[in-house]
UniProtKB/TrEMBL annotation:
<feature type="binding site">
    <location>
        <position position="33"/>
    </location>
    <ligand>
        <name>Fe-coproporphyrin III</name>
    </ligand>
</feature>
<dbReference type="GO" id="GO:0005737">
    <property type="term" value="C:cytoplasm"/>
</dbReference>
<keyword id="KW-0456">Lyase</keyword>
<comment type="pathway">
    <text>Porphyrin-containing compound metabolism; protoheme biosynthesis.</text>
</comment>
<keyword id="KW-0479">Metal-binding</keyword>
<feature type="binding site">
    <location>
        <position position="128"/>
    </location>
    <ligand>
        <name>Fe-coproporphyrin III</name>
    </ligand>
</feature>
<dbReference type="InterPro" id="IPR001015">
    <property type="entry name" value="Ferrochelatase"/>
</dbReference>
<keyword id="KW-0627">Porphyrin biosynthesis</keyword>
<dbReference type="InterPro" id="IPR033644">
    <property type="entry name" value="Ferrochelatase_C"/>
</dbReference>
<protein>
    <recommendedName>
        <fullName>Coproporphyrin III ferrochelatase</fullName>
        <ecNumber>4.99.1.9</ecNumber>
    </recommendedName>
</protein>
<comment type="function">
    <text>Involved in coproporphyrin-dependent heme b biosynthesis. Catalyzes the insertion of ferrous iron into coproporphyrin III to form Fe-coproporphyrin III.</text>
</comment>
<keyword id="KW-0408">Iron</keyword>
<feature type="binding site">
    <location>
        <position position="269"/>
    </location>
    <ligand>
        <name>Fe(2+)</name>
    </ligand>
</feature>
<dbReference type="GO" id="GO:0046872">
    <property type="term" value="F:metal ion binding"/>
</dbReference>
<keyword id="KW-0350">Heme biosynthesis</keyword>
<feature type="binding site" description="axial binding residue">
    <location>
        <position position="16"/>
    </location>
    <ligand>
        <name>Fe-coproporphyrin III</name>
    </ligand>
</feature>
<dbReference type="GO" id="GO:0006783">
    <property type="term" value="P:heme biosynthetic process"/>
</dbReference>
Length: 313
């Protein structure tokens, strides 16, 4: 490697990961469960969910690859030749440690890590950073991290555009229904994060408030709810969106826009938990439910990531 290449700053783009095919589902969930395989019943349920949304094709892997490539392209536009992007996944290959090792093999001495999740929690983004830090320290790579970017102006603009578009589609599909509610949502985490003073919940509310304000949504027209809680014995943050839909039905709400602002890509928690499960639940309650389009490779999201990386270096 030339001296010019050796002086590049590595960018470790981290995300949760996903199985690449139905054959990988068991190994993937065994990794999530820290070496404990899912039960036959759980595995059957998981296969059913994936087959319902994708029929064996896994959009999250392709979306993540696209986001990493899009970030590389944007960084190249803003700072030609300065950055090299690498991928590191929490529960699938290439693992976070693999990404750091590849940077080290390529002679990278300085790097910045960023997670494809705008909101910080010690249990989510914090755990990614911890793993990357440990491997980087071991290999002599100096790393800094973008911990959150939930109020980046371009992220808020992208989300606001999606909410505005979603409300227009909801108006059309519900026949101009005026009894409308916007439900901002994110992946639930165990309730114990509140005892730790974790910023996750407040950051999500900050994003929700900012987007609602920019979209001109009155305070009584939106609320925040949770989704996709883990199936463990410990209590998780709630209420879940299915419970919230039941409450809204009792209040006479007839149209709902789901705005999963805690996610940046089309994946299981969006394509199944919202598009199939929540939409079916809503329909059975006489509610029309639409969902905002996900960010995926949206240029404004790519600029959010690129500008956050540059600012961190």
């Amino acid at each position: 490697m030339s001296e010019a290449e050796n002086s590049k700053i590595g960018v470790l783009v981290m995300s949760y990961g996903t199985p690449e095919s139905l054959d990988d589902v068991e190994a993937y969930y065994t990794h999530i469960r820290r070496g404990h395989p899912p039960t036959p019943e759980q595995l059957t349920d998981l296969y059913g969910r994936y087959e319902a949304i994708v029929g064996g094709v896994f959009p999250l892997r392709e979306n993540t690859n696209g986001q990493v490539a899009g970030l590389q392209d944007k960084l190249e536009q803003l700072a030609p030749g300065r950055y090299a992007c690498y991928q590191g996944l929490k529960h699938a290959r290439p693992y976070i440690e693999d990404g750091v090792e590849q940077m080290a093999r390529d002679g990278i001495k300085q790097a910045v890590g960023i997670v494809l999740a705008p909101h910080y929690s010690t249990m989510s983004v914090g755990s990614y950073i911890k793993r990357a830090e440990e491997k980087a320290s071991e290999l002599g790579v100096e790393m800094t991290f973008v911990k959150q970017y939930h109020l980046h102006p371009k992220l808020l603009k992208a989300l606001t555009e999606r909410v505005t578009d979603g409300l227009a589609r909801l108006s059309a599909s519900s026949g101009g229904e005026t009894r409308v509610k916007v439900l901002f949502s994110a992946h639930s985490l165990p309730e114990k994060i509140r005892e730790l003073g974790d910023p996750y919940e407040e950051q999500l509310l900050e994003t929700s408030r900012a987007v609602a304000k920019q979209a001109g949504i009155a305070d009584d027209v939106w609320q925040f709810t949770w989704q996709s809680a883990g199936r463990t014995r410990e209590p998780w943050l709630g209420p879940d969106i299915l419970e919230t839909l039941a409450e809204l039905a009792e209040q006479g709400v007839k149209a709902v826009l789901a705005a999963p602002i805690g996610f940046v890509s089309d994946h299981l928690e969006v394509l199944f938990d919202l598009d199939i499960e929540a939409k079916t639940t809503a329909k059975n309650m006489g509610i029309t439910l639409e969902r905002i389009k996900m960010l995926n490779r949206d240029p404004l999201y790519m600029e959010t990531l690129a500008e956050s990386v540059i600012e961190a270096t």
